[in-house]
Design brief:
alpha+beta, Alpha-Beta Plaits, 2 helices, 22% helix
């Protein structure tokens, strides 16, 4: 699954630089995650780095975008090959 940022986001700016795929960017009101670039850090780290640094725990899995570990790894390969 891709991750998502909920409206509990306080715009603290700590998640964006942690994303190895540049999937996080400022949105209209809060930060947003591009699900086409989010691999939950698969291929880079053992755990999603944005979740590790978020002080308010507002980055859950996106239930609208279920993906297997294999799908996340394939997405990682495509992203890093570009």
């Amino acid at each position: 699954m891709a991750l998502m940022i909920t409206d509990e986001c306080i715009n603290c700016d700590v998640c964006e630089p942690e994303c190895p795929n540049d999937a996080i960017s400022p949105g209209e009101e809060i930060y947003v995650i591009n699900p086409n670039l989010c691999t939950e850090c698969v291929g880079h780290f053992d755990e999603p780095q944005c979740q590790q640094v978020c002080p308010v725990d507002c980055i859950p899995l996106d239930p609208e975008r279920p993906e297997t570990q294999e799908q996340l790894m394939e997405k990682y390969r495509i992203i890093t090959a570009a």
